[in-house]
């Protein structure tokens, strides 16, 4: 990765404001772990304009030395940080850290506050992944995909809907909006308030402003 690719937020602000008119798809990835780094390199190789963000600058060592995109140290759950790197102009936004809460928070911010049209959050808890998909957030669940892949290897039939990204269907937001949580305790008839925090096991709690519950972006 070229030295000009690794930036702090100060230089990132200048980069975002000075970026010329573009034809390439603009993609933001939060989390430079193995998944985030590998995906960033694949998109950049295909000609996309890629920025990858992580709070740990050491994580950028996972990128190839000639990575053509931008690697920026910063907090993906902070709205000002996302605006400074131009996330509000992104075509695609992927939250791929190792923390479910962190991924949910920054993905919701990208979709609801910054207006990014295509947003995906990696959520490792299958119950929460399904619940947030019902609430309008596209998700991918590594746990569900691994269980399905191992089951197929063992000769079991594929699990319906286990492969790929679970694309959320548009739904109506509002103070009285409710959505069914399939697979949560209480059965298919259970309901979750829009914007509520879904805990493992199907319990619902309010989310404190700015709370993530997860540390690190691996």
Q: Can you offer a commentary on this structure?
A:
The chain is globular and about 45 Å long. The model is unreliable at 1-5, 10-18 and 171-218 (pLDDT under 50). It has helices at residues 9-18, 34-45, 79-84, 100-113, 126-134, 142-153; strands at residues 6-7, 26-30, 49-54, 70-73, 92-95, 118-122, 138-140, 178-180, 191-193, 197-198, 204-205. With 218 residues, it is an alpha/beta fold. The chain has a seven-stranded parallel beta sheet with strand order 1-4-3-2-5-6-7, with helices on both faces. It has a two-stranded antiparallel sheet with strand order 8-9. 29% of the residues lie in helices and 18% in strands.
Care to give the gist of this entry?
With about 220 residues, this protein is α/β, with parallel strands linked by helices.
Largest sheet: 7 strands, parallel
Spell out the helices and strands N to C.
EHEHEEHEHEHEHEEEE
Helix content: 25-40%
Number of alpha- plus pi-helical segments: 6
Assembly state of the chains shown: single chain
Terminal Cα span: 18 Å
Number of strands: 11
Order of strands in the sheet with most strands = 1-4-3-2-5-6-7
Mean pLDDT: 77
General form? globular
Ranges with pLDDT <50 over ≥5 residues?
1-5, 10-18, 171-218
Radius of gyration: 18 Å
């Amino acid at each position: 990765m070229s030295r000009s690719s690794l930036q702090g937020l100060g230089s990132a602000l200048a980069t975002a404001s000075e970026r010329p008119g573009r034809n390439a798809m603009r993609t933001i990835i939060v989390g430079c772990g193995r998944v985030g780094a590998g995906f960033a390199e694949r998109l950049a190789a295909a000609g996309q304009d890629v920025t990858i963000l992580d709070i740990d600058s050491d994580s950028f060592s996972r990128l190839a030395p000639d990575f053509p995109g931008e690697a920026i140290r910063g907090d993906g759950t902070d709205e000002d940080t996302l605006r400074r790197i131009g996330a509000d102009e992104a075509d695609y936004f992927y939250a791929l850290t190792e923390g479910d809460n962190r991924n949910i928070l920054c993905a919701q911010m990208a979709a609801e506050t910054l207006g990014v049209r295509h947003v995906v959050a990696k959520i490792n808890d299958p119950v929460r992944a399904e619940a947030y998909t019902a609430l309008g957030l596209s998700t991918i669940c590594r746990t569900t995909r691994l269980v399905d892949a191992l089951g197929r290897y063992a000769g079991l039939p594929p699990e319906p809907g286990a492969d790929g990204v679970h694309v959320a269907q548009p739904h109506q937001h509002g103070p009285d909006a409710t959505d069914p949580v399939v697979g949560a305790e209480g059965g298919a008839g259970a309901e979750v308030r829009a914007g509520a925090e879904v805990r493992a096991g199907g319990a619902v709690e309010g989310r404190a402003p700015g709370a993530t519950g997860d540390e690190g972006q691996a």
